Amino acid sequence: MTHLYSNEEILARAKMLAERLSSTEQVQFYKQAEAKISSNQKVQRLVDRIKHYQKESVNLQHFGKTEAYHQNEAVIDRLQKELESIPVVQEFKQSQEDVNDFLQLLVKLVSQQVFKKNQSTQSDN
Predict the structure, then answer these.
(1) In the chain, count of helices (H) and strands (E)?
(2) A Pfam family name for this chain (predicted)?
């Protein structure tokens, strides 16, 4: 006989899993990289400038100022490249990819287990 879990039990187990995941090496490294980025003045200045130019681009595009829009987009591209060349940003991006890969693997494993469990309960019926 198969045990059916209540929503509360599932949520409690999911919360436990989330707590365990947050203490993994990958997630800890991501949190550290995020903290470094948040406290880096150069990174924050570049992010603020990019946001400013992005807002400006939206307005320029809205008013049909195509030449100014393209110039603005070129500035954004240059600022993005400068931002991405900073080692702490590269470290952060790598940690994001690592955590994402890790979470995708977990989702795949859980999905496979649910599918196997579902198949076995259907064959029992």
Answers:
(1) 5, 0
(2) Com_YlbF
> Which positions ≥6 away from 27 have C-beta within 8 Å?
21, 99, 102
Separation between Cα atoms, residue 99 and residue 105, nearest integer Å: 10
Question: How far apart are the C-alpha atoms of 51 and 35, rounded to whole Å?
Answer: 20
For the question of whether the overall pTM of this predicted structure is more than 0.90, the answer is no
CA distances from 43 to 34, 87, 90, 93 (A): 11, 10, 11, 13
Structure tokens at 75: 């500035």
pLDDT tier, 2 (very low <50, low <70, confident <90, very high otherwise): low
**Phi, psi for 23 (deg, rounded to 5):** -100, 5
All structural domains of the chain: 28-124 (1.20.1500.10)
Alpha carbon distance 48, 30 (integer Å): 22
Query: pLDDT of 8-30, one tens digit each?
Result: 998 999 899 999 999 999 899 99
